Amino acid sequence: MSLPHAILTALLEKPSSGLELTRRFDRSIGYFWSATHQQIYRELGKLEQAGQIRALVPAQPARGQKKEYEVLPAGREALSVWVARPEDPKQIRDPLLLRMRAAAVVGAPGLDTELRRHLALHRRQLAEYLAIEERDFPPERTAAQDRLRHLVLRGGIDLENFWIGWLTRALADDAVPEAPEPE
Amino acid sequence: MSLPHAILTALLEKPSSGLELTRRFDRSIGYFWSATHQQIYRELGKLEQAGQIRALVPAQPARGQKKEYEVLPAGREALSVWVARPEDPKQIRDPLLLRMRAAAVVGAPGLDTELRRHLALHRRQLAEYLAIEERDFPPERTAAQDRLRHLVLRGGIDLENFWIGWLTRALADDAVPEAPEPE
DNA sequence: CACTCCATGTAAGTCGTTACATGATTCG
DNA sequence: CGAATCATGTAACGACTTACATGGAGTG
């Protein structure tokens, strides 16, 4: 039930077309809620049907025509309700942790290589977040909105730091079977 | 594509019936890959069809009859292949972070209460993990299997610590609205 | 024998992924 | 005008969720 609310949030921040939304989901919003353009178009259709958003430039129902959406009062209301509703944290579901557990049973030559690869990916992601932080959240600005968005970004940063720490430790612990040396 | 491999791992650790698997997915395995009993029964059917597991006590195809499954060589092989295959980390997808972002747009009276609730839940989960660590991983035992499984548990522990740290900071930062905000 | 719990399963619907289709626009 | 790119959309499938159905076994 999160995708429609992610879209409403994005549209409130800035009215957009489907493709623009897709692009934004590849950047800021997508850093904590990803979605493909097919999901987005389908959901836009549902939200329009439900009277929570509406398309500007309504005249042309043509196929390749750009359609910009904006949020209606009903949509803003629905989003407010969702934000206020308690929701328990989801169970963890991580394929890498699962693979380690499986490796404890069937063995895993080369798993250390995979861990190093993940470590590099997380370091890159962390660097990207830190660059965004430096660009968007200089120390002096402290509007409430900014602080909330900064907190969300800090969440991403902390998560990457968790992975980097855990992977580093895993590799140092020497518990992970090593890959055969390449020639 | 992770669920069948989670089941194979669980069955290799100990042959079980569907309901026993469900229970184990509520405990150890489920700490990093959760699944409902419907998912598990369906997947058990597929795995049996595919010749990767087989049911013991085969005579009775009765409905309420307990069926114990064990992994066949083909299943073990399939699991080994999966463990060795590279797979990129998934994008973050967290409803709480999304709600915070939405709160930056529509406001969120009482969000701090929700954060405190999450904080308590994560502290409880952490305590549970630490109890398991103390019970299952005393300092002296260092078999390779144990170290891998310990690493996985450390992953869970570190993740809970991430949430506790982030939530604590969020509450301390005073960026989270405690009362309705005008727009 | 009614009740409860154990155990397996069906059904329906939503969400997410992958592949592909089609019209509109721009630019050499 | 031909090709690339922009933009929206269809189709199909698999994963996940929720609600419910059915049979078996033990117990008062």
UniProtKB/TrEMBL annotation, chains A, B:
Residue stretches making up the Transcription regulator PadR N-terminal domain: 7-80
InterPro entries assigned to the protein according to its UniProt record, in alphabetical order: Tscrpt_reg_PadR_C, Tscrpt_reg_PadR_N, WH-like_DNA-bd_sf, WH_DNA-bd_sf
Pfam families for this protein: PadR, Vir_act_alpha_C
Domain Transcription regulator PadR C-terminal: 92-172
PANTHER family according to UniProt: TRANSCRIPTIONAL REGULATOR YQJI, TRANSCRIPTIONAL REGULATORY PROTEIN
Protein name: PadR family transcriptional regulator
Source species of the chain: Streptomyces laculatispora
